[in-house]
Every structure is written in structure tokens, then in C-alpha cells.
Design a protein that fits this description.
Layout lengths: L2 H15 L4 H8 L3 H9 L8 H9 L3 H5 L12 H4 L1 H9 L14 H16 L3 H4 L3 H14 L2 H25 L2 H16 L4 H18 L2 H18 L7 H21 L4 H19 L12 H14 L3 H14 L13 H17 L3 H14 L1 H6 L1 H13 L5 H9 L3
């Protein structure tokens, strides 16, 4: 049975448990009855922004809607899954760790390995990244807790980056409780790193988690506060590239928040945040990765499309891609090949869902294949991939081997 049907069936089952009619649930999440009926039948898939609203209305967590974490097929044997119990133990004992079998390596060696881990995280390469994290976190923790002065602060700074990689792994694999714990550990380590911008980064990650579970008002307060904080931290009110990039990333997150919140003025608020971010991107002139925040012209376009998709305007989102493509003498705009794999694959997963909503099954299939080429593990574990692939397979009347194979690979 397909993942898309699972999502629809879960929603239907939870709705019956809560003794809600389709009309009552549709009213709670501000969608039409016919759209909800299509979701429950598996004919349409809920967007990433709709899932937390449905979960809240049904009194469950979003993971109960999506069915994460996924543990079917060969995924139970993957290295990225195998490290989850060890990461839980390390995050639990963060301030009182187990003894090491040998003295930790020098901080410079650990920093170099963490740089490698960070690159793998940005590329969505979770399978090779996962086994490196437990040992690296353990060694950095011991140095951070036993050293003093600048070395201690630097150890905490690198430890914060390790916890961020752990958060990303846990979130992408569907272990949301572990992801939330990892974010709190990022905040703990960042607070002792002596770097205010690392603390901004930690708060940004927490706000992102709030957006994912639909606590929009709390997330908005945090993000708007971060805009002011970055401004305050800038040297003599002169924004450096790092300050601009962090503010830009916060503005993009606010744009997605507004697109998903679906208040009466959500669309105009989202556009306003995107316009502010565009000004920052124009000043920077190129894509940057300060504090692991992908910000610049490329991520601005990715978020502009994502905000339209999250607001339900899939037609305009696809039109925007064609418009940008015309500027480059292409049919559609494409993410540059050099861009971070995790972010690029996420874009193609979103666009695939938008194409499916607009009835372009061939295009949706093509975009999922592109996402898989860029970042296979990230694509495979993304709930939108599973829902889209499952729907494509169910609607395929020509028994296309590629579509069937993609659905099986995605666990749909």
C-alpha cells in the first residue's frame, strides 16, 4: 500500500477517533471539504505546511501523519539508522559523558574532521556522515568540559556544529524527538562558545523546528527578535557579509512561516520578507554559507518558489520557474550544480509535488529523479518524496518501470 494512502488513511482514522466530520476538520484547517476528501482517498497529498495544521487539529504530532521514522525495507540496515541509539546516549549524557577509551585527539584534528562532517551534511550525505558523529561528539565534549579559556570556547563552538549535524540527521531521518534534543544541545554549546552569532544560529534552528510543528506565533517572535539581535551585534551598525547572510536566512525562514500560517495577510507578509531578503542578497551578490546558512540569490529563488507552493499557489510557483528560465534561455530555471545538495534536492522534491498538483506527472517524476541524483538519502527519507512517488505509481497506467522502481526505492 502506498505512503500517500497511508497518510490519507491516518488522517481519516484520526478524524474518526476524534469524532470529526470531513466538513468539521476541513474548517479547522481552512481547506475545502473536497480537497480533504481527495487527501483521505490518496488522490492528493497534503503540503508540508498543511501537515502540522492537520496534526494540531487532530491532536497528534506531525510524525503521526507522515508515519516517520520510516523503518521498512533495507532502511533498517543503513548506517545512518544504526547510529541513532548511540546518538541518543551521547545527547543524554552531554554534561556528564562516559569515559573515553583513549585521550581525545587534538582540537585541530577534531575541527578538521568536523569541517568534513559539515560538508557532508550540506550535501545530504547522511549515510557516511552518521558513523562519524558519535566519536567526534564524544571527543569534543571531553575537551570542552576539561579545557579552559579560548580552547574551551573553540571546543564548544565546534561541538555546537556537531550537534547541528546531529539535528539534521535526526530530522531528515524522521527522529523528531532526537532532533529537538539536538537543537537544545546546540543552544547549550553555542551559549558557551563565546560567539554571539553562533547563539543566533542556535535560536534560528529552534525557530525552524517551531515552524515545522506549526507554532507560528512563537517562531515569529523568535525570528523577529533575531533580526534585531543581528543588527545590534553588527560592528558600529555596519553589516558584514556574515551579518547580512544570517539576517537574510532569518528573513527567508519568516517568509516560509508566513506562507504556511495562512492568516488573511499571509501572502503579502511573505512577499515583504522575501523583498527584504532580496535586498540582502543583492548586497552580497553571490551565494554564501556563513554559519552553515545557505544564503544568496540561489536560496532566495528556492524560497520564493517554496513560499508559493506552501501557500497553495502551485501554478504561480511553476510559472516563476519558467520566467526565470526565459531570462537564461532555458525552459525553466535550475539550481546551480555547485549549490548545497541538501537544499537543492529539497527544491526539486517541492517542485515535484507542485507539478503533481498541477497534473504534470511526467515532470513530477523527472524532478524526483533529479532530487535523487543530487542527494539520494535526503530524497529517500523525505515524506513528500514518498507521498509523491506513491501517487505517481498509483496513477501510472502504463506500468512504467522507472516510476515503479522509484516508488519501491522510496518505500512507497
Amino acid at each position: 500500500m502506498s505512503t500517500a494512502s497511508h497518510i490519507g488513511q491516518r488522517i481519516s482514522e484520526l478524524r474518526h477517533v476524534r469524532q470529526l466530520t470531513t466538513r468539521q476538520l476541513a474548517a479547522k484547517v481552512n481547506i475545502s471539504v473536497s480537497f480533504l476528501e481527495k487527501i483521505e482517498r490518496g488522490a492528493r497529498n497534503p503540503s508540508p505546511g498543511l501537515i502540522p495544521r492537520l496534526a494540531e487539529a487532530l491532536g497528534v504530532g506531525p510524525d503521526q501523519i507522515t508515519g516517520q521514522p520510516y523503518m521498512n525495507g533495507t532502511e533498517t540496515e543503513e548506517q545512518a539508522q544504526a547510529v541513532i541509539p548511540e546518538l541518543r546516549r551521547i545527547l543524554l549524557t552531554y554534561d556528564n559523558p562516559d569515559d573515553l577509551p583513549a585521550a581525545p585527539r587534538p582540537l585541530a584534528a577534531l575541527a578538521a574532521e568536523m569541517d568534513h562532517v559539515v560538508q557532508m551534511r550540506q550535501d545530504g550525505r547522511y549515510v557516511p556522515m552518521g558513523p562519524l558523529l558519535p566519536g567526534l561528539l564524544s571527543e569534543l565534549t571531553h575537551i570542552a568540559l576539561t579545557s579552559r579559556g579560548q580552547e574551551q570556547q573553540r571546543a564548544f563552538w565546534w561541538l555546537a556544529r556537531g550537534y547541528r549535524a546531529t539535528n539534521s540527521l535526526a530530522h531528515k531521518m524522521g527522529y523528531h524527538d532526537l532532533s529537538f534534543t539536538a537543537i537544545e544541545r546546540v543552544r547549550w554549546a553555542a551559549g558557551q562558545s563565546g560567539d554571539p552569532l553562533m547563539q543566533v544560529t542556535a535560536a534560528y534552528l529552534k525557530a525552524g523546528a517551531m515552524v515545522r510543528v506549526g507554532t507560528f506565533s512563537s517562531a515569529r517572535r523568535v525570528l523577529e527578535g533575531l533580526l534585531d539581535e543581528v543588527e545590534r551585534l553588527s560592528p558600529e551598525q555596519c553589516m558584514t557579509d556574515a551579518h547580512l547572510a544570517l539576517q537574510g536566512a532569518v528573513l527567508l525562514k519568516l517568509a516560509i512561516l508566513e506562507a504556511r500560517d495562512r492568516r488573511s495577510d499571509s501572502d503579502s507578509r511573505a512577499r515583504a520578507r522575501l523583498d527584504e531578503a532580496r535586498q540582502h542578497a543583492e548586497v552580497l551578490g553571490s551565494d554564501t554559507t556563513h554559519y552553515e546558512m545557505s544564503f544568496g540569490p540561489t536560496n532566495l529563488r528556492i524560497h520564493e518558489v517554496a513560499a508559493l507552493i506552501d501557500s497553495g499557489d502551485t501554478e504561480q510557483a511553476l510559472a516563476r520557474l519558467r520566467e526565470w528560465g526565459t531570462e537564461e534561455d532555458r525552459d525553466e530555471w535550475e539550481v546551480p550544480a555547485s549549490f548545497a545538495g541538501e537544499r537543492a534536492s529539497h527544491h526539486y522534491i517541492d517542485v515535484a509535488a507542485a507539478r503533481l498538483a498541477e497534473g504534470d506527472r511526467t515532470g513530477a517524476h523527472r524532478d524526483l529523479l533529479q532530487a535523487r541524483r543530487i542527494a539520494p538519502t535526503h530524497t529517500r527519507y523525505h515524506p513528500t518524496t514518498r507521498a509523491t512517488a506513491a501517487t505517481l505509481a498509483r496513477l501510472d497506467r502504463k506500468n512504467n518501470d522507472s516510476i515503479a522502481g522509484l516508488a519501491r526505492w522510496a518505500g512507497a
